[in-house]
Protein 1
Amino acid sequence: MQPPAVDRTGKLAFVPARFGPDIIGGAEIVLRQLALGLQDRGWDVEVLTTAALDYFSWKNELPVGVAVEDGLTVRRFEAVKSTAGRERQDIGMRMFAGETIPLGEQERWMNDDVRIPGLYSHLLAHGSEYRAIVFGPYLFWPSVACSQVHPTRSVLWTCLHDEPYAYQSIFKPVLGGVAGLFFQTEPEHELAHSIFSELAPHDTVGCGVEVPDGYDPQRFRTKFGIDAPFLLYAGRREGAKGWDELLQMFARSVVARDLPFHLVTMGAGDVRPPAEVADRVHDVGFLSVEDRNDAYAAAAAYVQPSRYEAFSRTIMESWLAESPVIGVGQGGVVRYHIERSRAGVVYDDAFEFEEALVFLAQQPEAARQLGRAGRQYVLDNYQWHDVLTRVETSLMAWTPAVGTPAAAAVGAA
Amino acid sequence: MRILMVSPYPPKRDGIATYAAQAVAALQAEGHEVEVLSPEPSAAHYHLDFHAGARFGLALARRVAGYDKVVLQWHPAFFYRSSDPRHRIAVDAALTVAFRRARQVEIWVHEFEYEDATGNGPRAQACRALFRSADGLFFHSETERTRFLETVPVDRGKTHLAEHGASFVRRSDAGREEARASLGIPASSTVFLCIGFIQEHKGFDRAVRAFAGLAAHDCRLDVVGSTRLDEPDFVAYLNQLDRLCAETPGAHLHEGFVSDELFDRWIIASDVVVLPYRHIWSSGVLERAALYERPVIATRVGGLAEQAGNRSVTLVDDDAGLAVAMRRAAGVEHVEEPFELGNGDLFASVQAAVRERASRARGSDLPPPPSPGRARKETVPGAVASAVRRLPPYAMPPATSLRPGVSQVKGLIRRLIGWEVAPVVHHLHLLQQAVAASLDVLEERVAALEAAAAGAGTAEGPAGGGAAEADGSVAAGDPSPAPVPAPVPTH
């Protein structure tokens, strides 16, 4: 599938807000894999990121400066969070209430969170040394502030969700005025067209998922002392990800229908389980890759309550372990995957969620059978090799190497 | 050299912020180490509230010792939060202290309010002292430098002229056709462009009026930009411009965020850039137009004539000159056609000829008189309520004062009356939302009524024997009323 002639001249920059092997976060993981994968294919790749590791505190835990990590040149800049974040919270709430927010307030909302002035300054001085600068996701400060320094070299790993933020005009130039946009799914692509009248050149390239060598579900149960059948949730525990709603639905279902399930969660954020199910909710924190994979395999099902997904890497990881997915229909992306793969159950409200759990309790074998279809779906559609090839093809078209006929064509277009 | 740039900075959308970023890039390319101080959190290294008055100046004074040079982008609105002379004197005095502590200070003067430095009162003296304390003053035109020196007599040797676009770089690689396609502009049209912040002194309304009639010659005028501030006066002007564009065939208002890239793409897509300014010092738009070799029509104000230099700029002195220049640029030669009158009723013949000629000149039939439900041109859903939506939410004025103790008193009063005022403010917001929502509903119903009326008119037209016109009106002398549409179900 690799095209015959890929011109890998020039340097690529990837700009995740955080970077490291243990970082939890969809976009951060993907940008890391892209950077490593393209370097393996012969590209000169540099990572521009912060010295922070934690998404909430943005404390600079690593040294600022240049280092080589996993063979990649990594330039770390100071993450600056110099404001209290009150405006971000207030204005964000008004966005969710559907209020029209003037652009000046949108700017204050964007700047009242982590900023990376050193990165901006670096791109101002050295941005033209990169053939392409890949930002992501659309919502982060670097994408908004820094993609406009060299828009003809800026490419966005979009991660667009159907959320009130996406409708703010501050994002128009980010999606309309850069060299190219990478979408991961068709629903994300359609959503972008529905929100933005003008889109930069774009391609739906999918996303790759690492395929583990094997699983040991019993090891997970033993290690964490969880014998009961359980549902698994991995990711940030916050309202925007549907965590609070999941807790409520879970509590109502297992109590009302006398279901045997527990809920195991990994990731960051407060758990706050309702009292009636507090003893059934287990926070296992951050897991090693091996433990994480085993958790997927040990789960009766994986639950995805987030409406704001551009790809949903965790449901792919669950399917690779042949565990079915019970996923929310609103938002489109999770529904899209489940309906295409037929490897789980879509729910659109608490009643459907409850019935899905009843099915899971009554028909565990049938549920497992659904899960097995999921593995093949991932293997057929979301292998890194194919994704990297599509990414390279797009980069060649959007940001051709200087001096090539393609570059002349772009410049003269 | 370690340099501190004091300026608004991206991602703030502001011409001077963009200018400052490009200046920083140029200084970095020369090998200088540059840090930026902006008035609010941004991509700058530091931020301080420039509107904090004397406190800002004193905070700046504490920082400047660490730099070899301070470069300050000057616009009165950046540093003064009001026109209160006491406030301005305090700001000037504090900045003067900061400048005297710095090793070297450059002020790049983008705008200056001459009345601040006129006369011999304390206000003027503080202002002059401030600018005298700088080591270098930079202007974009000789006109403005001369005028400045007449008001603020500083050593001329300290003043310099700087080419406005010296640090400007292209933000878009698009070609004309590509840019037009991306903006939905037909390839064949002649495109006039007004772009920048929408505010009265930019005079975009003048261009719209001057453009009237050119739509008939496959021309269009695109007005692109947003208001700098969401304040009532700015919003009122925007609404006025919106109405004017809606009434002028071929004029299109594109209100909203304009990134640097999009800004350049609009210029690339245009044939002529129009700068109908009422007053201005110098123009970044003129520089960006030159960057892409687009001709400019500009009013002869401020330093524009000088800035134009040898570039392709047509300078005009008034609205009539603007209209002539735009017609010439469109290749429209005005040829006076003789009235062609029929042999019948002279009055009717003249009236018909007048209407027909005016229609051609206007580029469309006479707009129908304003009446509920008559959309004169296609509008996007919700457009009717946009004037209401644009009004910024009411924000209570800051409980601050320069006078000692007054801020505390104001704060106390606010806390005391907050329980009464807050619900009123909240109710005001709800009222605004309700008005906008009601207008949306009305708009939908009117559109449905119009569609029904159009259908009924078509069905009953000739067969009904009436003299209904295509627009649904009834010809004079016809006693029969226009068809009444059926009621539309409510939502």
Note: Residues 406-460 of chain B form the longest helix (55 residues).
Protein 2
Amino acid sequence: MKRVYPDKDFCIGCHICELACLTAHSQSKDLILAYTVERGQSGASSCKHVHEAGPTCVALSCRHCDEPSCVAACISGALQKDPETGRTVYNRDKCVGCWSCLMACPYGAIARHPLEAKIVKCDLCFDRPGGPACVAACPNKALKQEER
Amino acid sequence: MLFQPINRNYHDFSIVRDKDLCINCKVCVRQCSYEAHYWDETRQKVMHDNAKCVGCHRCEALCPTAALLIQKKRSDFKDNALWRPEFIKYIYKQADTGGVLLTGMGSPVNIPIYWDKLLLDASQVTNPSIDPLREPMELKTFLGSKPDKLEFSKTKDGSPKLKTKLAPQIELNYPLMFSAMSFGSINFNLHIAMARAATELGICYNTGEGGLHKSLYQYGKNTIVQVASGRFGVHRDFLNAGAGIEIKVGQGAKPGIGGHLPGEKINAMVSETRMVPLGSDAISPAPHHDIYSIEDLHQLIFALKEASEYRVPVSVKIAAVHNVAAIASGIVRAGADIVAIDGVRGGTGAAPGMIRDNVGIPIELALAQVDQRLRDEGIRNRASVIAAGGMRCSADVVKAIALGADACYIATSALLAVGCTLCAKCYTGKCPWGIATNDARLAKRQNPEVAAKKMVNLVHAWGHEIEEMLGGMGLNSIESLRGNRDKLRAVGLSDTEMDILGVKHAGR
Amino acid sequence: MTYVIIGNGVASIGAIEGIRRHDPKGQIVIIGAEDAAAYGRPLISYLLAGKIGPERLALRGDDYYVKNGVELKLGTTATNIDTVKKTVTTDKGETVKYDRLLIATGGIPFVPPIPGVQGPDIYSFTTLAHANTLIELSSKIKRAIVIGGGLIGLKAAESLHDRGVGVTILELAPRILSGGFDEKAGKLAANRLKNVGIEVNCGVTAKEIQRTKEGRVKGVLLTDGRFLECDVVVVAIGVVPHSALAKEAGIKVERGIMVDGKLMTNAKDVYAAGDVAQAMDQLSGEHRVVPIWPNAYNQGYASGRNMAGAKLPYLGGLPMNSISFYGLPTISVGTVNPPDGDKNYEVHALLDEEKETYRKLVFRDGKLVGYVLVGDIDKGGMYTAFIKFEMPLAGEAKDKLINAGPEVFLWPAELFDETWNPEPAKAAR
């Protein structure tokens, strides 16, 4: 399965991947509206997060683990593994906002939705033509979508 | 401006932010290494300080909503043909600092550009042009000393066998090489990129005077190692690592003085590779302290040949100065296999502006004279001539070869290929494109994988254009173009200039 | 190959998913006492509180069992296991043969022998049936007393309160949530409950449940002498492993069914997982019953994979809980109440009563072994990583964790690279 792998040696900490992710998951698909309006109004968020420590930085998101800790912890079945695509799939409607997945995921891949009792997690841009928005937007090829 | 020296108000650039497009995402704040953009906590928006803008365009390039525009600052001094604005500002700065004005990259001043006054021929009717997509076109060339004559013997079955022993040659797939840019003046990632690109293209890159890092020895077959006056990083393994050794006597951007790497740009890796202490300026002496005459040069050239067991050609790089032809002749007679001439427009990582803009002569004139002089003396075959110093496009390269060059060194073009915008602040070590810096935060901005690809693309593109121009002239190899002045015509040049270039006026 | 699973909880779902990773064809039979597809047991408090409807309870989709080739025997209780003949007998009179058996019968509520506890109006709160009963009752009753101030008790109390019932909690320990929380965190949670009107009584429990002449509950006499009126009593002290079936079959049971590193019991081809099992606990290095939701799934999954032939060791689970109290989120993972005076442990705690936030970090032997977060829970998982992967934290790294929070750059370099940017598989070139 092709996953998105980040290279901390070439991440320049520009956060453009976060902006691209936000845009791809927004209603309007327009960066200006997504950033200035949708974030406040409906809590639109990026699933990608840039971690920084001094000059080092890297952009991380859900690894779609083969054996996800979040699926094990989910009390409602909102998080499940799709055996066909290999993705860890989140069903928003089933989620009750208990944060067990956030607690269990050791990769910090799950965040609370800013407004609702739901989570925000990378979905590998499964329905985006051209694939993951973060990979397409990175100006320094620090994110690669590959089979490894 | 409040609390700033008054001449700060005469800054060169203004940042123009389109309020409809700016979303205060702070990408510009993160990308600007001069801190011209900053987050204003009170106003809760991104603000900028125009006085800090150096016109590098990094913010403009990365702004995700294209909200930024970098413009020349509008306020104009009264028109004055003598006291142009830059001279006025130089004096303000020197009155404040009392220091030498440093600058970077090639000279931007108005010295005549002869490439723009030379035009190429094309074939028509009597001499058919060649289609490079259908017929073989030879861009390959060999750098090194060529023998005076070739002697053959016959093998048992009667076919000819070469008896003459050839001097070592460097084989180039294109008449181009990446010129000397030291590790320290530029990012190590770009050395990796040049090494990989040169290998993929079948050409060479030059280490510059910063030594060669061990991890790059694997690309030795496509590397020319440089020995400059500071002898930075020069040791036995270094000399044996490359496909050629170059003695740097001078550099086009600053003839007469040595290299200059400001202390801020020296980190642990630079320090180790160059064999210099951390933090203090690495300034190369003006002359090599063991070369005070042509005989000394002769001695050094042969010392290097002995040390490398005559396996590789030895090159001497000089700046284009007034008596460049005589100097070149002396160098060839001293045993150099290659003479590289760097014209007044050559780039640099750091040089005093006065020297960069006022010392040296254009490569076009130097090249023509060197080629002519060597031919006149009957020694043109003893060394290859490389032209360097501001070749901007494939047409410049073709003209250079027509004037007599075997190949061209390109450096500024290679840096432009990876994003440089010629803001000329290389000496600060804050290059936001990650080019002229090894700062941990900035050096990452050059990904060798991406940079190598861009350099390869550039040379491929130029190579193809050269083939088209050659074919258009009815030539099918670089060898037929070299020194072929008849393929050039001048426009708007004086008799003296045309005489020096050895080129007729268009129409004649 | 026939896999028989007794129990239809989350451990069974884990087992199905574990089996199917290795064996897409083997037959799977599930014998489940409850008459429902596997449901999220913790969701019963959401159901009781009226926050979700019954259609959201199922853990997997409607076609899950069919897609995974699972035969369901619901509303069926296993009555006997014959480990020699390798059969399971059910209360429907069926005898089911197995090649591999998984006992995932979970836990049953512990009811203490309080005088007066036998009889009507006493309820537990661990199953869907319990929840449905309480939902029906909630419109008819005025007051309920919940015995037990642990996770189940507090959730029961909250849910009843949300249905309009007046609730009082009795907790024997000096504070609520004495298991997964400490005094400070417990107090923050208790304050929230008090603010909405739920009465919390610590250091006290039921001495006697008093009934009317007709035998209906009229109130509870407390150990401190007070008498509190109520219509029902919810006993929520805890669960014990439902291990009777295994015991009778001669399988080794201590507190729970003993299993080895592959989750197999001492009977060949018989496995156990979930609240009924006594399996490896990562932090103590011992076999313990740790009735925690993710452990149940993970044990089920690991037993499934091992049953299907993959020899994979189960390295141990962690105690962990994520609970919110009227909008105050809390997370507790690992060892959070180290023994007093034990010098091997180092504790760092930061409380902000006004902001209602609390963070407690517990270190042992230079590693993080537990943490509690109240209010500011966003970095929870990142702390969990340090515990789960047993990452060494010395000197500067430990200070950074304490002062600046968990950061992925504190991970050992090799682990970081392996996790996030492993070498591309070396294809033949």
Note: DSSP finds 16 helices and 23 strands in chain B.
